[in-house]
Amino acid sequence: MDRRTMLGGVATAMAGGVTPSALAQPLNPKPGAPGQVGQQNTHAPGAKKIRVEGQTILVTGSNRGIGLGFVKVLLERGARRVYATARKASNLPDVVALDPDRVVGLELDVNNETQRQDAAKAATDVTWLINNAGTPGSFTREERRIASATSLDDAKFVMETNCWSPAEIARLFIPIILKNGGGAITNILSVGAWFCLPEYTSYSMSKAAAAIATAGLRAELDLEPVMVAGVFTGGVQTRMSAAGLKGRASPEEHAREVLDAMAEGHTDVFAGAGSAAMKSRILQDPVAFERGVIERFHTNPLEIPPY
Ligand SMILES: NC(=O)c1ccc[n+]([C@@H]2O[C@H](COP(=O)([O-])OP(=O)(O)OC[C@H]3O[C@@H](n4cnc5c(N)ncnc54)[C@H](OP(=O)(O)O)[C@@H]3O)[C@@H](O)[C@H]2O)c1
Question: Is residue 107 classed as helix, strand or coil in its secondary structure?
Answer without folding.
Answer: strand
